[in-house]
Design goal:
A 16-stranded antiparallel barrel has the order 1-2-3-4-5-6-7-8-9-10-11-12-13-14-15-16. The protein starts with a helix and ends with a strand. It contains two helices and 16 strands. The chain is mainly beta. 5% of the residues lie in helices and 68% in strands. β14 and β15 form a beta hairpin.
Length: 352
């Protein structure tokens, strides 16, 4: 990965905010303490991380029937010396350029689409990977009347990692959502999605002696998802969701069924302070055992969780400060690659 690619995208994004077009910029500078930046278990070593994130946008076309917007996001993380001589040191830089369009085809029918290119470059940080990502999204939204609405979407993306041990991934997704808005303060959603994932690696198969061997074809997965959601905004914004995911794979050990829950809470507290809380957790059960003699729970169950809490204080129309905490736990079969981590952070936000 060539680091200058990110700078080229940054320059292209800034030049895309053409003179005379409506534009905006947001920047976030922060300092964090990560107690497990290498994402290992056991033997974690903590370290400090400084962040800078810049989000710019420009309205290229703004008409009553639709518009076109150019967005650019750029982020930089620096890992500093922490606990011990082997504490993490390195940099991560990411740059994403996106073009979004909106078209009001009919009074009750809206068409939208976007295309994006993202470059991520990692230097000396083993827990993150360098890659090139490209994506395309198309969506149609229609109002049915009496509070009902539906949306049909298509998404296609491709990931080209720069690390030798990682594989290419091509994704295609078709989704259908049905929503009911009883009022502005209460909404319910039902969604379905089908995803086709093609991996740039050979699928695994069971050999004649029971051993796991490489097959003759590349791995392909079909993932189906059913999602339920409820959003209520009264004294507090409550956004809750549940998803059932069923993944079929031609590679041994990759078929599973998962239950996932999500919860978002947001409200104004006291003295100009706003609070946010987010929680997501997933539980998987795999179809096959990779090691029939091993523990059944370790082989067939997968659990992961992410918890995030943030307090923000608006100092003026342009500046705000925030403190945040996050806890994450990944899931892994046979406890390989398992880790837990805590992150404590402070940030200063600018809006121009």
């Amino acid at each position: 990965m060539r680091p200058q690619w990110g700078w080229l995208l940054l320059a292209a994004g800034l030049l895309g905010v053409v003179p005379g077009a409506a534009g905006a910029m947001q920047a976030v500078a922060g300092l964090e303490y990560d107690d497990n930046p290498f994402e290992t278990y056991p033997g974690r070593r903590g370290g400090w991380v400084s962040r800078l994130f810049v989000d710019t946008s420009g309205q290229l076309l703004d008409q009553s029937w639709g518009g076109v917007q150019l967005k650019h996001q750029w982020g930089f993380k620096r890992y500093w010396r922490g606990e011990g001589e082997l504490a993490p040191r390195g940099e991560v830089m990411a740059s994403e350029l996106a073009l979004e369009g909106l078209f009001q085809a009919l009074p009750r029918l809206q068409l939208s689409g976007s295309t994006a290119l993202k470059v991520k470059n990692v230097n000396r940080i083993s827990s993150e990977e360098s890659y090139l990502h490209g994506g395309l999204r198309l969506q149609a939204d229609a109002a049915l009347g009496h509070g009902w609405a539906w949306a049909l979407r298509y998404h296609r993306s491709s990931d080209d990692p720069r690390e030798a041990e990682l594989v290419d991934l091509a994704l295609q997704e078709v989704g259908l959502d049905l929503g009911y808005h009883r009022s502005r303060r209460a909404q319910a959603h039902l969604g379905m999605a089908w995803r086709w994932l093609d991996y740039g690696r050979l699928a695994l198969a069971r050999g004649s002696a029971g051993a796991v061997i490489l097959g003759n074809e590349e791995q392909r997965d079909l993932e189906r998802e059913l999602r339920l959601g409820l959003s209520v905004n009264r004294r507090m914004l409550v956004d809750a969701g549940y998803a059932l995911v069923d993944n079929h794979s031609n590679s041994l050990g990759y078929g599973f069924r998962a239950h996932q829950v999500e919860l978002l809470l947001s409200r104004h507290l006291y003295l100009g302070v706003d609070g946010q809380f987010y929680l997501t957790a997933q539980r998987r059960r795999y179809d096959e055992e990779l090691n029939p003699e091993g523990p059944r729970v370790a082989d067939e169950e997968y659990a992961q969780a992410l918890l995030f809490a943030k307090l923000t204080r608006q100092l003026s129309a342009l500046y705000s400060v925030g403190v945040q905490y996050s806890y994450s736990r990944n899931g892994s079969r046979n406890e390989q690659g398992f880790f837990r981590k805590h992150i404590y952070g402070f940030s200063l936000n600018f809006s121009l």
